[in-house]
Amino acid sequence: MKKKILITGGAGFIGSHVVRLFVTKYPDYNIVNLDALTYAGNLANLSDIEDKPNYSFVKGNIVDGDFIHNLFTEHKFDAVIHLAAESHVDRSISNPIEFVMTNVIGTVNLLNAAKQLWKTSNNQPHPDSHRDSNLFYHVSTDEVYGSLGNEGLFTEKTAYDPHSPYSASKASSDHFVRAYNDTYGLPAIISNCSNNYGSNHFPEKLIPLAIHNILHSKPVPVYGKGENIRDWLFVEDHARAIDTIFHKGKPGDTYNIGGHNEWKNIDLIMLLCKIMDKKLQREDGTSVKLITFVKDRAGHDLRYAIDSSKLQNELGWTPSLQFEEGLEKTVDWYLANQEWLKQVTSGDYLHYYEKQYISR
Ligand code: NAD
Ligand code: TYD
């Protein structure tokens, strides 16, 4: 029988790359993509694979526990790769409850449904399940570790110290996943990844927002002095890491994923401006003039940087792209997909966002 895998949040940025990789690389798996299609979810991200026989889409909300229970009863999933989340720190600052609902309650609903399907209440494997292959894979962020000073890297042993409502909600969901592993024996793996960039990224996050605004000659907002540091990983490298960990990782373990690619925000934006000038055939220095320093984000974490040596040494994964190459590829994708950009910004979202930074 074909292995049936539930991927949540598959219409979003990272989820769409994970769904595409699994659907095309594993024709023997049935992939079910569950997504509520919030502002960040977009089925156009998957238009090239939507007709594949091993792919199906279900629209639904992970916050609805009865719906999730019925979905698991109907499909009897062998494994879950959970990416659905509210993912933007600035939004979490203005509306934390939404993050608690999706990231915490939604995750616990999925854990309950998996526990119920894969085990009976006395901790015996469910007769319908393929116990050996059952896995709850929870996709998380390095932001749960808090903020670094100028030195050091996050390892799997770094204590959790989340600061933003987003990272607090992700940390909480990670703890619930571990609790279900420890208490009920639910086979679970967590990975914590650094900042991703690439195609299908909603233009509220730094890189796609800057590309969008430069393209339209609008101000590029840089928070504070632009001195905060992020460790950037190409999204397709993250999807490959998830594939590697899903197949070779040890249940009960955690894996850090990162690109050893630290950039100060302002240096990153300067590089992006240079690439955009070249691609748009504008005079050198045109885009830099759009840089606008705005009020800093509340509780802004100074630096994230990941030590991914466990994943590299134990499971053999390595990032494939240099940042300059990946960034250029990303810019090319946005310039070739301006219809996509127009479509996702056509609601009132960017309007709201612009209001937010223009009033700073
Ligand atoms: P995203 O915001 O682009 O996509 C999230 C997806 O989840 C969307 O398709 C949305 O429709 C769906 N969704 C949201 N709420 C839902 C709900 N209640 N029920 C069902 N579906 C819902 O996010 P992303 O950047 O692709 O992040 C995916 C996962 O990876 C998240 O768990 C995030 O915490 C984690 N992560 C992201 C990054 C990053 O740099 N973007 C880095 C590390 C980890
Ligand atoms: P973001 O892409 O929101 O990711 P995260 O907050 O999860 O790391 O932001 C990346 C960095 O860029 C972060 O230090 C905040 C900063 N930033 C800006 O300076 N301007 C912006 O308009 C945005 C969205 C982010």
Mean pLDDT, nearest integer? 93
Would you give the CATH topology of the largest domain?
Rossmann fold
Beta-strand share of residues: 15-25%
- CATH class wording of the largest domain: Alpha Beta
Distance between the termini: 57 Å
Global structural class: alpha/beta
The figure for the number of domains is: 2
Radius of gyration: 20 Å
Largest sheet: 7 strands, parallel
The small molecules bound here are:
nicotinamide-adenine-dinucleotide, thymidine-5'-diphosphate
Count of helical segments?
12
CATH architecture tag of the largest domain: 3-Layer(aba) Sandwich
Give a description of the structure.
This protein is α/β, with parallel strands linked by helices and 360 residues long. The chain has 2 domains: 3-197 and 231-257, Rossmann fold; 206-229 and 262-301 and 322-353, UDP-galactose 4-epimerase, domain 1 (Alpha-Beta Complex), CATH 3.90.25. It has helices spanning 13-25, 65-75, 89-94, 96-118, 165-184, 206-215, 235-248, 265-279, 309-315, 323-336, 338-344, 349-358; strands at residues 3-8, 29-35, 55-59, 79-82, 135-141, 188-193, 196-197, 220-223, 229-231, 233-234, 254-257, 262-264, 291-294. Helix 5 (165-184) links the parallel strand 5 and strand 6. The mean pLDDT is 93. The site of thymidine-5'-diphosphate has 12 residues, from helix 6 and strand 8. Nicotinamide-adenine-dinucleotide (NAD) binds at residues 9, 11-15, 35-38, 40-41, 61-63, 83-87, 102, 106, 139-141, 170, 193, 195-196, 202.
Brief characterization of the structure:
This protein has 360 residues and is an alpha/beta fold. It has helices spanning 13-25, 65-75, 89-94, 96-118, 165-184, 206-215, 235-248, 265-279, 309-315, 323-336, 338-344, 349-358, and strands at residues 3-8, 29-35, 55-59, 79-82, 135-141, 188-193, 196-197, 220-223, 229-231, 233-234, 254-257, 262-264, 291-294.
